[in-house]
Amino acid sequence: MIEVHLGDITRLQVDVIVNAANTHLLGGGGVDGAIHRAAGPRLLEACRELGGCPVGEVRATPAFSIPVKRIYHAVGPVWRGGNLGEPELLASCYRHCLALARREHMSSIAFPAISCGVYDYPPEQAVEIAVEEVQQHLDRDCEPLRIVFCCFDEAMAELYRQQLDAYVRR
């Protein structure tokens, strides 16, 4: 099941929330900052111990003060025009998160719009990649059973709804 939710990802009732992180994993603005603030200072300590994460990959931490089981820190690409592997790197973030959720037997996961904030990924293209990767995953696997695209504004939520509808009509 795929849902589109408008609101704060740190307040969702899911097993895993995905953080749109930077390569240092040391917090930042947007979703990254909100997750670090909600989780508390122990998250920063745990992220320091990980020593960073390459673009296109994911690292996991406990959720500390956020009432979920895990936080997956996905490092999406900075948009530089689309000819430097950005689509594959973004798709890789979703694939790695979904594979990790399956390995850890998580039943639900919430994604923000990875790379769509300060990383300037064009939202329409990012949403298309996100929906494609999630749908392909669900076609192959049944875990996690519930996937949420969590959006901070109605315009982004509408992009996800339209892309999900378009995928179903194919």
UniProtKB/TrEMBL annotation:
Looking up CDD domains in the UniProt record yields:
Macro_OAADPr_deacetylase (cd02908)
Q: Which SMART domains match?
A: A1pp
For the keyword Hydrolase, the answer is yes
The Swiss-Prot or TrEMBL record annotates one GO molecular function as: O-acetyl-ADP-ribose deacetylase activity
Family annotation (InterPro entries): Macro_dom, Macro_dom-like
Q: Which organism is it from?
A: Microbulbifer taiwanensis
| Protein name according to UniProt | O-acetyl-ADP-ribose deacetylase
EC main class here is hydrolase
Enzyme Commission number, as recorded: 3.1.1.106
Checking Gene3D superfamilies in the record gives: Leucine Aminopeptidase, subunit E, domain 1
**Top-level taxonomy:** Bacteria, Pseudomonadati, Pseudomonadota, Gammaproteobacteria, Cellvibrionales
Keywords carried by this UniProt record: Hydrolase
Q: Does the keyword Hydrolase apply?
A: yes
According to the entry, every stretch annotated as the Macro domain falls at 1-168
Instruction: Write down the superkingdom of origin.
Output: Bacteria
| Classification via NCBIfam families | PRK00431.1-6
